[in-house]
Design brief:
The complex is a heterodimer. In chain A, 43% of the residues lie in helices and 15% in strands. By secondary structure, chain A is an alpha/beta fold. Classes of the chains: A alpha/beta, B alpha+beta.
Chain lengths: 248, 534
């Protein structure tokens, strides 16, 4: 099982849309895929029409009183399951902090799932916390949606800094441009500069599109209801690049 | 595993007159049902000639619908979900030609070098009803399917039983239980067979029609010549059924199985002595010897091509590309060897050989046979032959020292093969629990002897090939050097295999096995009053 984290310190960067569409594309290719919605806002869970509710919450999960796989729900799509979000996840940091070796608790929870799935997509909450540190340590690759603005570039630098300091420099980082508006000069400028400074930047860029926003109305992955939309095609290119980069 | 415990798909057989509308109507009062468009799915089931996927417990089919196609691997116990892969083009002949994917990872180790062959076509008309919860989320699917089967290359269609399948969604056990409860009143029956077996049955076939394995069951008192004929007939069938695939070069194993059956035929002719007249033995020993000869060159090329990836990997990365000219050379020579082989298989000589052999085998045994042992009970002849053959193996094997020349080991390998074939022909005459461990330990000994000899043969042959390539024209010096490295590696491995042989022979000749051979096959054992199941 390969583990992909979808993450940014900032919120509202198209993270959940990327997680949902990438997972959907993987499932279509036959990868048995599980999305774990770690964000207490439960956006991925909502997109799949699943009720956010994990009996016993994160506390029981981390303490090993319930198995992660008891909470897994099938989505409407073949090969694609979801471990729903739970409001209690907002306290996950505290629970993780109580446990022994807090930075490795997620890996431990995920181990039993590794036979049932080929790919695990972690939709992470924003900010740097114990939860995200856990994701960094468990993931084979970290996909970082980035809006091409000066501020986002600073955020990405901060993230790389954090990795340097926390012995995570080996993590496979895959920033890509998200919510791109090519009419904006700044977007164009940043999209030219960032790959020069950070060659790990992926080529595929997701345009800012109302199609993507409508996912919330249809509660369906974009690639499932309009596979030919420009943004859907961009997700396909993104997925192909991630596969090549991670060897999934 | 608890992970999939709720995924068990439920299948029900429907009577031809059962009306899906009525069933759906009865359910729609209590469940929120959403109907989907009727879908027509054209499937072709694939497996290797020797049914490796089916025997491993899975079904592979290509599914086409409105121009899109995908490959689906369905584990037969249905506890595990199917694995699908969208196909960009035709189903490739070999699993290794599929792009890296979970599906390839599942089937490639099962199929190895065997080609995927179409086994049956099935067209399914499917009406799907989704059971929705209050978020409009699908929590269960009901699939009404009516299907018809066709032979893989087209032909008449046969209707199959209508089915109702319940496809649960993980994490939603309640709707499944409720719908099942509602359906229980209809008293539907479970299907008797999996979809492929059902289709094949309707087409007058069955799964696993072919196996290269020997599986005889003899009465100990059967006349020896009759039993021998039964063995030979089975081997002849194996030879004949593999000819078409060999000629078409679908994969390397048709020829391999054909050659093994030929070798067994020759072994049975010479080892089961005194049951046919000498003239018959002589004629067909020579005839099948010729078949062994003319099929050899193509098999050699198959072996090198199958081994090629291992050859490449045996070299340090930067030298691997140097072997490419060798690969091209092998492919070209495999093709020309195969052309010659097809000519030989089409020759009157080969056809007459098989035809007259069959006539002889199918003719009733003579009332007063000339051959001295023809009328003896098979259990007696089998015991004698196995005992003699075993004693020879033990004598030759025990006299080997670490300094013995390689030829002595090759001789021993031949003897061991003869012994193995004999035991396999006649294993049904003996208690399975006793005979199995003997075959196993003999097989392991043979594996060790086989790799010892094969490595040497491959090393010698690679040297020959290098000369041949040099004679035939331009071959880069780097290629010859890389082949030299390969030869060196093979000879080193051969040295290691020599040590392996000592250990395997020690295992084979341990006292437990010696006792078993003695109780089963020695003259003393055979003179027992009841020669039945020993």
């Amino acid at each position: 099982m390969k583990i992909l984290g979808i993450y940014n310190i900032k919120g509202g960067v198209g993270k959940t849309a990327a997680a949902v569409n990438l997972a959907y594309l993987a499932a279509c290719e036959g990868y048995r895929t599980l999305v774990w919605d770690l964000d207490p806002q439960a956006a991925a869970t909502y997109y799949f029409r699943i009720k956010p509710n994990v009996k016993g919450g994160s506390k029981k999960l981390i303490k090993g009183k319930t198995e992660a796989d008891e909470h897994i729900k099938g989505t409407d799509y073949e090969n694609l399951d979801l471990l729903p979000a739970d409001f209690s996840y907002r306290n996950m940091d505290l629970t993780l902090g109580d446990a022994k070796k807090p930075a490795q608790q997620l890996i431990k929870l995920l181990r039993p799932l590794s036979y049932a799935y080929d790919l695990l997509v972690l939709d992470c909450p924003p900010s740097i916390s114990l939860v995200s540190e856990n994701v960094f340590r468990a993931a084979d690759g970290l996909v970082v949606p980035t809006i091409p603005t000066t501020l986002s570039v600073r955020t990405y630098e901060q993230l790389k800094d954090f990795f340097q300091k926390h012995d995570l420099a080996g993590l496979n980082l895959m920033p890509f441009f998200s919510m791109v508006d090519r009419r904006k000069n700044m977007h164009q400028k940043v999209m030219q500069e960032l790959p020069e400074r950070f060659p790990e930047t992926l080529d595929a860029a997701i345009p800012y599109a109302s199609d993507v926003e409508r996912m919330g109305i249809y509660r369906t992955p974009l690639n499932a209801y309009d596979a030919h939309a420009p943004a859907a095609l961009a997700y396909e290119r993104l997925w192909a690049e991630i596969k090549a980069r991670t060897g999934i | 595993m608890p992970v999939n415990s709720q995924l068990q798909a439920q299948q029900h057989r429907l009577d031809p007159e059962a009306d899906p509308e009525k069933i759906v109507g009865a359910l729609s009062d209590r469940f929120n049902l959403a109907a989907e468009h009727e879908r027509i799915l054209d499937s072709v089931y694939f497996d290797s000639f020797d049914w490796r996927l089916y025997l491993a417990g899975g079904l592979l089919h290509e599914e086409r619908e409105a121009g899109a196609r995908r490959l689906v691997w369905t584990p037969m116990d249905e506890a595990a979900p199917p694995v699908t892969y969208p196909l960009p083009g035709e189903v490739p002949r070999f699993a290794w030609d599929l792009p890296p994917s979970p599906l390839r990872a599942r089937i490639a180790p099962l199929l190895e070098m065997r080609a995927l062959l179409p086994q049956a076509q099935v067209r399914v008309s499917r009406r799907t009803f989704r059971v929705l919860d209050d978020e409009e989320k699908t929590v269960l699917r009901l699939l009404f399917e009516s299907s018809e089967a066709r032979p893989p290359m087209g032909g008449e269609t046969q209707a199959l039983d209508n089915r109702l399948r319940l496809l649960p969604v993980r994490g939603y056990p309640e709707p499944l239980a409720q719908v099942q409860k509602a359906l229980a009143q209809l008293q539907l029956k479970a299907p008797e067979q999996n979809p492929l077996a059902e289709a094949l049955t309707a087409l007058g076939r069955k799964p696993v029609e072919y196996s290269s394995k020997l599986n005889f069951s003899f009465d100990p008192n059967t006349r020896a010549d009759q039993a021998a004929k039964a063995i030979h007939l089975h081997l002849l069938n194996t030879i004949e059924v593999n000819i078409a695939g060999t000629k078409a070069d679908l994969d390397s194993e048709f020829l391999h199985d054909l050659r093994v059956a030929v070798r067994r035929t020759r072994s049975a002719l010479t080892q089961v002595k005194g049951v046919f007249e000498d003239a018959v033995v002589q004629r067909y020993k020579e005839g099948f010897g010729w078949v062994g000869q003319v099929t050899g060159p193509t098999r050699d090329m198959h072996v090198y091509l199958l081994e090629f990836e291992d050859y490449r990997k045996a070299l340090p990365e930067r030298f691997r590309a140097d072997l490419d000219p060798l690969h091209r050379f092998l492919e070209e020579h495999q093709k020309s060897a195969h052309r010659q082989l097809v000519k030989d298989l089409n020759s009157p000589h080969f056809r007459t050989l098989l035809k007259t052999w069959r006539q002889f085998l199918e003719s009733p045994p003579p009332k007063r046979p000339q051959a001295p042992k023809a009328a003896l009970p098979i259990v007696e002849v089998a015991g004698q032959r196995i005992w003699r053959s075993y004693k020879k193996v033990m004598q030759d094997g025990s006299s080997l020292t670490p300094d013995s020349p390689a030829e002595r080991l090759h001789e021993l390998r031949k003897d061991c093969k003869k012994l193995r074939y004999l035991i396999e022909f006649f294993s049904s005459l003996y208690t399975e629990a006793k005979i199995k461990p003997l075959i196993k330990s003999l097989k392991r000994l043979l594996d060790a002897l086989g790799s010892f000899q094969d490595l040497e043969v491959q090393a010698d042959k690679l040297r020959d090939l290098a000369h041949q390539m040099a004679d035939e024209g331009k071959v880069p010096a780097d290629t010859l050097l890389a082949m030299g490295m390969l030869v060196d590696g093979l000879l080193r491995r051969q040295q290691a295999a020599r040590g392996e042989f000592d250990a395997r022979f020690a295992d084979f000749s341990e006292s437990k096995n010696r006792r078993l051979f003695k109780t089963l096959f020695s003259p003393a054992a055979r003179s027992d009053e009841n020669p039945g199941h020993l």
